[in-house]
Amino acid sequence: MKKENFSAGKLSIVILLLIFASSCVPVRQLSYFNDIEELERPVVNPKTQKTIMPFDRLYIRILSIDPQTRDIFNVPEQARYSPSSDALIGYLVDENGDIEFPFVGKINVGSLTLEQAGNKIEQALGEYVANTTILVKFIDNQVSILGEVQQQGVYAFSQDKLNIYEALALGGGLTRYGNRKNIILIRQEGERIMHHKLNLSDSKIASKDYYYILPNDVIVVEPLSSISSSYPNITFTTLLSAITTMIGVLVFAGISIQ
To answer: Would you call 12 helix, strand, or coil by DSSP?
Structure first.
């Protein structure tokens, strides 16, 4: 009986070791900037500006020393926010890239940067008023974060510059099973939906074209090959745990394990 129990005990220990090994994730896979010692000088990233696309919403404000001009073209402060939320009410860009501006009519701002759009609106207003400055900003900047993060969701941001690390921090950061070498960035570029793969463990990522996030980007954190904690499916670890429990019951009952 002792020999039988000893064999079952050894088998239990082996299975427990397998469970421990299967649940471990190497530290290198959980670390950022694994090659930081290889950096010789700071990296430079000239941020790509987002151009205006159909269905973007723009905040446009007229700056002028003439109070009448401000009263005519600017929305009153008390009416600037949606009654159902704190969101700014702005100008919606239609499918042709046009906005409908008071007194001027349609102005095409599609594929322009915010600065270019401001200059174009200023020129259009020049026929009616002089000495104005146009401030144009995007409204409802959002990024969608999915996959192996602490909290998936759609997050609003107001920064002009939001990098990939700041965006992931909005979702609470990666889980222990998030693959830092396989972050998928989905972005609409013109009429194309592009998928870009980012490696967060690369210390030179700040020099990459997609280091900065644009409004309406989607970030997907792929899982490691290790068992993901995000899904309630029956996993290999669960099966091993069940087998270990069964062996413990058998040993307690004094049944031989061959």
So the answer is: helix
